[in-house]
Write a structure and sequence with these properties.
With 428 residues, the chain is α+β, with helices and mostly antiparallel strands. It has helices spanning 12-18, 35-38, 46-59, 75-85, 93-100, 102-112, 159-172, 174-184, 252-269, 303-310, 315-322, 358-367, 406-419; strands at 3-8, 27-32, 66-67, 120-123, 140-144, 154-156, 201-205, 210-219, 222-233, 240-245, 274-282, 289-295, 338-346, 350-354, 372-375, 394-403, 423-426. 43% of the residues are buried.
């Protein structure tokens, strides 16, 4: 029987990726709300979004068989709440929020995998004496306990940089923190992590090394990892340049340690019947492994790469779990041996005056078959005013490329950067 699968903020790109998935009996894909509402909106009213999504599902003329999430908050929390209301397989809302809340997650990590947890300290960014209450030595990271894609995350080296970072955070934290406070009202938050509510921030020890990310699922208590990614940073060391699949820069024994640590942590949180991806930093000089974070969903950044290498998007696992089926994923049946999601970055503010045209993109795709180019800016955009950007670089475009080996993949990335022409008017 054909299954009705709902995907919040479904995009055309994701619809194509999910098209690589074969579900017994077939499926019909349905968007739930839209990208502008759930991802790029200037403000989020959590309860309103929840009600609107709930009403869309209730108005549907048919069975609601599955709801899957692959976006960050608010989607990541709305989905388990809706799934519980509609009696669908899903992690509990509380087990999801435990990982969404960076302070709560760190506390639980310290309980379950203490050997991998950096030093951290919670603080109120609105407290004028906040720095005096932080027991992490400079330099350290500051970040809200909930944000998007490294937004409002800053490396600070002294009191002056801390003051500048917290001023920026105070001005912008409400966009995510206020709706996240509404989400927290749906669960019981322990006293030790309440601090300043969703406007709480963390100071965290800076860790360095090689970054990698396992992705997998927990289904009725059965834990499985279906892929591990390299997460390679740019020359500044602050922002990602590209994600490579499969991982090859970290030894197999270290990858297995990452997988085992993630399992210990997830079982400690009570997480089940859902997907995850975790991020680690491995210091090759000392052998130290650091847990950065655990996300309670598949990564949409990984989807095209799985399709290129394994022959199907990771949505195959997410949909199986959401339908109450033991997840299955093909292995190395794709067109390419390796694949990457790559950023086209720009490091200075400016107004966009030119973006690559359709003919340039078509020529690039003909030159490198299978390449996907997603332009993220438009002529007239001021880069510093774009939503969902990290503090250290602006993202002009995202590339999805495949190749026969990692050396060829790196060269293809460089060739794509050279072929895609953007122009800017300087801003003073």
């Amino acid at each position: 029987m054909t299954k009705n699968v709902f995907v919040p903020a479904l995009t055309d790109l994701q619809r194509g990726e999910i098209g690589t998935v074969d579900i017994p009996g077939g499926m019909r894909l349905h968007g739930l709300l839209d990208y502008d509402t759930l991802i790029s909106a200037e403000e989020f009213d959590f309860e309103d979004l929840l009600d609107r999504a709930r009403n869309e599902l209730r108005a549907f003329d048919g069975d609601v068989d599955a709801i899957i999430a692959h976006w960050d908050f608010p989607t990541s929390v709305i989905v388990p709440i809706l799934a519980a209301e509609f009696g669908l397989p899903s992690p509990s809302p509380e087990s999801v929020i435990r990982s969404e809340h960076k302070l709560w997650s760190r506390v639980l990590q310290r309980e379950s995998v203490p050997e991998c947890v950096p030093e951290f300290s919670a603080f109120d960014p609105f407290d004028p004496d906040a720095l005096d209450k932080i027991d992490v030595a400079f330099p350290f990271w500051v970040k809200p306990i909930k944000s998007h894609s490294s937004q409002l995350g800053f490396e600070v080296s002294d009191a002056e940089e801390f003051a500048a970072a917290t001023e920026r955070i105070r001005n912008e934290i409400g966009r995510i923190a206020d709706p996240f406070d509404r989400a927290l009202a749906h669960v019981t938050v322990p006293e030790q992590v309440r601090a300043a509510g969703a406007r709480t921030c963390l100071a965290e020890q800076i860790v360095t090394g090689t970054q990698a990310a396992p992705e997998g699922s927990l289904f009725r208590g059965e834990y499985h990892v279906h892929g591990v990614f390299d997460m390679r940073k740019d020359a500044t060391g602050h922002s990602f340049a590209h994600l490579d699949y499969p991982a090859h820069t970290v030894p197999e024994a270290v990858r297995q340690q990452m997988i085992e640590v993630t399992e210990r942590y997830l079982r400690h949180t009570g997480y089940d019947n859902g997907c995850f991806n975790s991020e680690f930093m491995w210091d090759a000089d000392t052998g130290k492994l650091w847990l950065i974070e655990v996300n309670t969903r598949i990564s949409q950044s990984h989807s095209d790469l799985f399709a290129k290498v394994d022959g199907a998007s990771n949505h195959a696992v997410a949909i199986d779990v959401a339908l109450g089926r033991r997840p299955e994923m093909p292995h190395r049946k794709g067109e390419f041996a390796v694949a990457a999601q790559c950023m086209v970055p720009h490091y200075d503010d400016g107004v966009v005056t030119r973006v690559p045209g359709d003919d340039e993109i078509a020529a690039l795709r003909q030159r490198f078959p299978g390449t996907v180019v997603r332009i993220e800016v438009e002529v007239g955009d001021r880069l510093s005013e774009l939503p969902n950007q990290d503090p250290y670089r602006y993202k002009l475009a995202t590339l999805y490329i495949g190749a026969a080996d990692h050396d060829a993949l790196e060269q293809r990335y460089r060739d794509c950067l050279e072929a895609l022409s953007f122009e800017f008017e300087e801003v003073y």
